[in-house]
């Protein structure tokens, strides 16, 4: 459990406010220093990027910099990014990155520009770099290289329909076993007829984000004594539990489900429980249909306790950018206290303690009880979370493919739990040995 405890301690520090002094360079900072330049931003088409890009005109007016945006769904964005970085191309200046996923890999490849000098020598007045959550900054730092600036804090939470639970006489789940019992009851309840009892990620490279919470709550860890540990007792229980929930109670074609499909399904009232990103809260609530009949909680504890997944997206500058200084201006603007306070009002959980304490944000939370439940769940993520999603190795993205394949093989019935975990452990041990 050592890795979990260290992650928990780090994430607790994420909510501590820094009180650093304004660097001397801030006195001479000029937002128009790169007027006329163009910055190309490769964006993941998720709620964070969509919220930021609503204010593009503000950025361009403030800096005189033209922002060129290339936006794709997450998998396509990743494919595009790998193509550009492998080619050492200058086509992209700024990109969205998940340090918990590709941070080690991209840092080892030399693909990130080090942002440390910028944070020391080119900081705008009132930027408050030290106000950013320390754990998220640390999570984006590899061998002394600061690879990105945090945009948010997030993790998977359980959205569930209070009206259906009431109609079907089901109590709110307080354990993972309760989720399985609730799904079974919903499946046989007339009031929930035609509604998917439980939905979560089934897309192979995407599902470790949600599966990891099951694994940790069951008491499992990805590695033990330097080897893959999926075939541990706890690992096999987690694999079977997650796969059987999706197989027996999930939507048709769930192996193709990531956040986009989950959000649509729940928002439209076609799933009763949806275990997915807290970051999808604004999209889930779009239109207001789910605002009055939903509850939000962290994944209930398993035999191993409660160890929620807590991560954050960051903005990075490509090592191959020809406009790193102008790119840094975009990052400063997008991650400033002023912008993050605005984003918080759109349901983007702020990585800055000052933003979460903002009076306008507090008033926004007070408008709807469900927003307060969402924030309470996020507080739990920050306090108790682990950022371990997949294997803590350079080849973390590839490790997720093997985790996802093991779950999908069990889900589809092409392998038993024993067969699936054994195959995955063999592949993952070979991956670990390449380190």
Automatic annotation (TrEMBL):
It comes from the Bacteria. Coiled coil: none annotated. Keywords: Cell membrane, Lipoprotein, Membrane, Palmitate, Periplasm, Signal. One of its GO terms (cellular component) is periplasmic space. It holds the Pfam family SBP_bac_8. Residues 1-26 form the signal peptide. InterPro entries: Bact_solute-bd_prot1, SBP. It is found in: Periplasm. Belongs to the bacterial solute-binding protein 1 family. PANTHER family: ARABINOSE-BINDING PROTEIN-RELATED, POLYGALACTURONAN_RHAMNOGALACTURONAN-BINDING PROTEIN YTCQ. This is Carbohydrate ABC transporter substrate-binding protein, CUT1 family.
